[in-house]
Amino acid sequence: MSEQQPVAAIFDIGKTNKKFFLIDESYHIVYEVAQQFDEVTDEDGDACENLEALTNWVNDTFEKALQLPAYQVKAINFSTYGASFVYIDKAGKPLTPLYNYLKKYPAQLAEKLYAAHGGVDLFSKDTASPALGSLNSGLQLYRLQQQQPAIFAQTAYALHLPQFISYLLTRKAVSDITSIGCHTALWNFKQHQYHNWVHTSGMLEKLAPVAAADEVQEIEYKGRPIHVGTGLHDSSAALIPYLRNFSDAFILISTGTWCISLNPFNEEPLTADELQADCLCYMSYQNKPVKASRLFAGQEHENITKKLAAHFGVTHDFYKNVAFDYTMGKWAMEEYTNGKRFTTAGLNGFDTYERAYHFFLYDLVQQQKKSTSLILGAKKTTRVFVDGGFSRNPIFMNFLAWAFPAMEVYAASVSQATAIGAALAIHEHWSRKQIAGDMVEMKLFHI
């Protein structure tokens, strides 16, 4: 029988897609499965995650992976979407549905909390997050206390979803700084500890001890020793391959439905103006603030390309066939400089799809420039990395290089960056190899 290949097992759990990977010591994905679940509803009829189905899938998938003859699972870690608590009793049984972070939050309840702690502006500044309702998961815990006190009393621990998935294997409750620092309204970024309201309101006793992001628990699973990580918030996990490969300051623009600009090297406190502009802070796996800004650019692109397709009588994805045209780009710049902005109401003013699409993207990139510039900070930053869907769009990337002429703008790619990041966080506990310096594929775009 041939020698088994050492691997790390990673669960990467998104709102829609649930993925499982085995990753070898060179950080190649050697096995993967994916699953989706229909949502269920909570007691109010609001859609939420099917926690029971998710739990069963995690257990079954891990069990099957351990039976694969070619691989030896040395460690396992988890990355999931954030802003979601699982409330467990002393036996580890969930007490409530996994409430959706989009669930409408009672305005009076939020105002009561803010009023008791200096008002919403000061509260948001201290916790480095705009007031986002249920997206502030600390407010979900506060809601449980205020509206369901009996269940709150039964709650042994409120675990963010990555830590709950880890708990399924370790049966040890821990908290993780990347989840706590993810717009939860729990953490005081100036004092580097839980906000005062967590101490005074009785929340602290429901929060498990904080473990380091590279910490593992060694368990025996059916006679096999396995190192189990504590789990990570997915946005923080996706940043890890870049932090492990680059030491000089950089900005990462992670593009998808939201385009999130992340600056791990800006340690300046959030200002009131930045909060008003929807900036916030994440926490890196190294326990450092990561200033971030957001733009709904991916969704805007989806909406506009549908309208362009209908107007010009082409397929929805026709934009994928449009090459960057330098002359058309210069025309778009001149039009924009002269005060013109893209609106679908003016589509009759464009003679071709290509011209309309170039102008739309130029307008969109100017919005992206404004969003990214919010988190640049005083520290000199010379490189911008773009990953996700827009990194594969040459028109977007060329316009972004024009928008930041003093910087090197790269289309960057790490296959399954979130899963790779979760494996990198516990690298020393499972891999015998050095981390390769070429993990991130890059393409430079010039002015």
From TrEMBL:
The keyword Kinase applies. Its EC number is 2.7.1.-. Residues 9-198 form the Carbohydrate kinase FGGY N-terminal domain. Residues 249-428 form the Carbohydrate kinase FGGY C-terminal domain. Gene3D superfamilies: 3.30.420.40. Pfam families: FGGY_C_2, FGGY_N. GO terms for molecular function: kinase activity. CDD domains: ASKHA_NBD_FGGY_NaCK-like (cd07772). Keywords: Kinase, Transferase. Belongs to the FGGY kinase family. This is FGGY-family carbohydrate kinase. It comes from Terrimonas rubra.
